[in-house]
Amino acid sequence: MKRTPITALVPGDKRALIAIDLGAESCRVSLLRWKGGEPTMMLVHRFGNAPRMIEGGLRWDLGGIEAGLDEGLRLCAAIADEGVRSIAIDGWAVDYVRVGEDGEALGDPFCYRDDRTIGAEKLLHERISPQRMRDLTGVQLFRINTLYQLYADLLNGSPTGRTWLNLPEYFLSRLGGEQVAELTNATHTQMVELGKRRWCDEIFEAAGLNVARAPNIVPAGTILGTLRGPLAELEAFRETLLIAPACHDTASAIAGIPAEGNDWAYISAGTWSLVGTVLNGPMNDTDVRADNFTNLSGVGGRTCFHMNVNGMWMLRQCIGDWSRDGVLWTAQDLVEAVQEFPRPLGLIDVDHPDFLLAGRMTGTINAHLRQEGYPTLDERGANAPAFAHLIFHSLAARYAQVLERVAFHSGKKLKRLFIVGGASQNDLLNRLTEEATGLEVVRGSAESSTVGNFATQMAALEGARDPLTGGISAEDVLQWAKLFAAASFSPSKNAGDRGVLAT
Question: d(Cα 237, Cα 318) in Å, to the nearest integer?
Fold first, then answer.
């Protein structure tokens, strides 16, 4: 199909768009405006986000997130005197909010790092085997997935007759949209039939969950209604549409990569590193299952075929350790400090389950070095660069291992590696990755999830719909992503620090 040149992609309705990205460490509210027919993007508001231990569990501050989003939306309304055409929200996957019949949250949601799922995973596997779940869903088995969290709720006495919504969809419903599960996010629950747009009855039954209480699944680009409530009284928000983009932030980030051809892979790098490639459909053969790759829905019917690899979480935890000891380091300082370090004597397995848990990360790293027979590192803050150096080299080595398997499974002759997300700005890690993989590293947008969010909104507003699925076209999203990836992106004075390893 012949596509419209991106230079001709100027909408008739030039009202602004808002993209909200919920991050496990920070949340962002961004504004896209048209000036002289050209798009410009602004990071209007950025605020911190972190779980805290309350009520016997590690939970998110739902009220704090809502307050930050409200402030960001009001700032956007004050800037966009031309009005706001639509709002869309993406965010990290797997976590959810339980809501009552009135749509109100029943409490602060658990964080996926809470250890309650360790036991729940083992018990659920006694009711339905990991192999069977893998056959049914094609999804990487991972104890943080929504399925294990919902089963943990059941084991702990939480009511089953309550609707649950993943976080981006929850906030869209709070703004006035219908309650849904957007497909890219739904597949990450480990509860959707492979290659289908429906919940898996067998998994729900095995887990004792009520499928009738699960939200309806919709494709990326679905318009959910119009903004309602106090914000709708602002002049800029009159008749503002609410759109479900690729609600999974990784799917949005991949949708924001302006790449064509079949020779490229991606790393969406931040708190996590998602390492893989885009396919036209899922793969779930014996070798894929053995390697535990995941098949997650992407925009326009594509499949994001990748593996979760640990990311900047480890370094952030170490920085927290040193901070509590009174020594302050930034990620950028550490990147600069280790530029000329020699290769470390040994590496660590960054995907070991121990490194997924909150705690004193420096001690956990030393415990693993000791187990492997390598010298341990001085944990004092003055020796922080040595830990950063080890983490960067270990991540690059793991990326190379995963990408070798990506090429094997996909049959692609990979040449380019697009790195997007906050950690794409880490030039040292990019160089180490290029050396370890032998691929040309192309640094994409640090705000690729925002680019993909905006591109999906425009495809939903301006593009054609698939008559069978009601979904948007991946080709339409790509054309808008090309335009927006090349556009200017600047922080406003309210946006806060966008540091080198921001997520």
Answer: 42
